[in-house]
Amino acid sequence: MPAAKITGKIALYVVVSAISIGMTIPFLYMLTSSMKTTPETLQFPPVWLPKAWIWENYIQIWKQTELFQWFRNSLFVASARVASQVVTCSLAAYAFSFLHFRGKHIVFLCTLAVLMVPHQVVIIPQFLLLKEFGWLDSFKGLIIPSMVGAFSIFLFRQSFMTIPSEMIEAAKLDGCNPLSTLVRIVMPNSKPVLTTMILVTFLSHWNDFMWPLIITKSKTMMVLPVGMANMVGEFGTDWPMLMTAATYATLPIIVLFVFGQRYFVEGMLTAGIK
């Protein structure tokens, strides 16, 4: 191998390793801070390792806060949003990919245009609309506005376009209607992009803070990000407990990515082919 190519690879690995370390350090500091005392978390310069590892924080957090309620609400809301988007967005993507109707490309471009509209622009109209429906401070208000996602439609459509049209025609000859073709032919051949969509969408909704903060007001409806924000007090904050809650909040994402990373990478590559 030429020396220039070896040097380029070494430089690439050094840069990627430096970026990886830089992104990992905050998580390691969060993990160590969750087992410190409060004075240790306030020291400057920061103390990276505690003098005594306080593992009891991971037990006390469940007793001192409503973490279980927040965790359950976030899991339910994020799962419901993901499940509904799998259904609605796959149906829309199938129509954009294989059905022929007037104005299809214009409708698809309008769907993509939604991605360029900041979510903050539509928050007030959505809030006023849900207030008229009486859905404030409810799971309906948290879930229904996010049942369809333009990014998920785009991701599914890009993957569906890679499926040979001969497979769709063969399914029609065998008597499959569009719904049967989607369920029996298209979705089984789109597992990588399906996993990618689930990971990306679940991560986005798991970390959703602004909309639940606006739409809910009771403690029983709090999701995890809002509950953690309420742990920050006006006159003081129990930082070890807050870091413990943050550590628990990252666990579902880590587990989900570990089991789906193979399909995640493959799905992102497949979605970009067309």
Automatic annotation (TrEMBL):
<feature type="transmembrane region" description="Helical">
    <location>
        <begin position="106"/>
        <end position="127"/>
    </location>
</feature>
<dbReference type="Pfam" id="PF00528">
    <property type="entry name" value="BPD_transp_1"/>
</dbReference>
<keyword id="KW-1133">Transmembrane helix</keyword>
<feature type="transmembrane region" description="Helical">
    <location>
        <begin position="75"/>
        <end position="99"/>
    </location>
</feature>
<feature type="transmembrane region" description="Helical">
    <location>
        <begin position="139"/>
        <end position="156"/>
    </location>
</feature>
<keyword id="KW-1003">Cell membrane</keyword>
<dbReference type="GO" id="GO:0055085">
    <property type="term" value="P:transmembrane transport"/>
</dbReference>
<keyword id="KW-0813">Transport</keyword>
<dbReference type="InterPro" id="IPR035906">
    <property type="entry name" value="MetI-like_sf"/>
</dbReference>
<feature type="transmembrane region" description="Helical">
    <location>
        <begin position="239"/>
        <end position="259"/>
    </location>
</feature>
<feature type="transmembrane region" description="Helical">
    <location>
        <begin position="12"/>
        <end position="31"/>
    </location>
</feature>
<protein>
    <submittedName>
        <fullName>Carbohydrate ABC transporter permease</fullName>
    </submittedName>
</protein>
<dbReference type="InterPro" id="IPR000515">
    <property type="entry name" value="MetI-like"/>
</dbReference>
<feature type="transmembrane region" description="Helical">
    <location>
        <begin position="193"/>
        <end position="215"/>
    </location>
</feature>
<keyword id="KW-0812">Transmembrane</keyword>
<feature type="domain" description="ABC transmembrane type-1">
    <location>
        <begin position="71"/>
        <end position="260"/>
    </location>
</feature>
<keyword id="KW-0472">Membrane</keyword>
<dbReference type="GO" id="GO:0005886">
    <property type="term" value="C:plasma membrane"/>
</dbReference>
<comment type="similarity">
    <text>Belongs to the binding-protein-dependent transport system permease family.</text>
</comment>
